[in-house]
Amino acid sequence: WPSGPQGNVSVVFLLTGIPGQEYLHLWISIPFCFIYVISILGNSVILFIIKTDPSLHEPMYIFLSMLAITDFGLLISTIPTILGIFLEISLDACFAQLFFIHLLQDVESSFLLLMAFDRFIAICNPLRYASILTPPRLVKMGLLCVLRVVVIVLPLPFLLKRFQYCRANVLSHSYCIHQEVMKLACADITVNNIFGLSTAVLTVGLDPLLIFLSYVMILKTVLSIASHEECLKALNTCVSHLCAILLFYTPNIGLAVTHRFGNSSSHLLQFVLGYFYLLVPPLMNPIVYSVKSKHLRARIIRVFIN
């Protein structure tokens, strides 16, 4: 690719799957297609049930619908490249994709934090639950989370656009993320490194810390409950949220660490974590919440039986 002042005009990034295992890509695309179909169907059912059933218009389910919409956006932004519809991607398309991937990932982190706040209010201050988490306030909280993430993530594509890309622009994944694209630039990427790390700290670093503090307060309140049965009942309402937290943050943090501190021997781990953190939460969130929520499960069964 040309490298002068106008060199980036014709730059494209080549997308890869498993390096050295190209002959398996067709077979690998089959489970990926299956994951996408199940994820889209599962999140669609969740959104349909919550929208059409007035009894589910409660804060917990409204937050769950926000999570499902975010997962939808993440699936749509990655489908064209992960399923191999495009084997190469232009510079601007790559920047757009990485913006939406980072945006939606960080929005999901924010919504998980809101869901932790919901559980905190429900268990620690149940008498004021309805008066604190009113529908207008829920909308404002959701919009504020999205606005916060937009402000944090928006500079990423612009910081990358100022570089020239004159190396072999082969990505080790079939999608674009900031940590990887910046390493292909023919320039000093110190500013991008610092800004990317700051972005990670302000989102997937700060949010889990606040979630942890919420659960410390929840645990403190639950342990003060005299009845053992009531204690277990209160904790049981948090199980699905805790599963969603583990599914989201474990690969996310692991991928960030391997990208910044990994070596050539960690490529396979990067590959596994890279697809796990994008595909597994949208797949598992509807399943986890459907299994653990008695009311939601009953509505879903009623829809499919009737």
TrEMBL record:
Q: Which GO terms describe its biological process?
A: cellular response to lipid
User: Which keywords describe this protein according to UniProt?
Assistant: Cell membrane, G-protein coupled receptor, Membrane, Olfaction, Receptor, Sensory transduction, Transducer, Transmembrane, Transmembrane helix
Recorded superkingdom: Eukaryota
Location in or out of the cell: Cell membrane; Membrane
Q: Which residues form the G-protein coupled receptors family 1 profile domain?
A: 42-289
Transmembrane segments in this chain: where? 24-50, 62-87, 99-117, 138-160, 194-219, 231-249, 269-289
**Which GO MF terms are attached to this record?**
G protein-coupled receptor activity; olfactory receptor activity
Q: How does it sit in the membrane?
A: Multi-pass membrane protein
Question: What InterPro entries does the entry give?
Answer: GPCR_Rhodpsn (IPR000276), GPCR_Rhodpsn_7TM (IPR017452), Olfact_rcpt (IPR000725), OR51/52/56-like (IPR050402)
* SMART domains in the cross-refs: 7TM_GPCR_Srsx
Report the main location listed first in the record. membrane
Mind telling me which Pfam families this protein's record contains?
Answer: 7tm_4
Cellular component, GO, one term: plasma membrane
Q: Which family does it belong to?
A: Belongs to the G-protein coupled receptor 1 family.
- Its recorded name reads Olfactory receptor
Q: Which organism is it from?
A: Chrysemys picta bellii
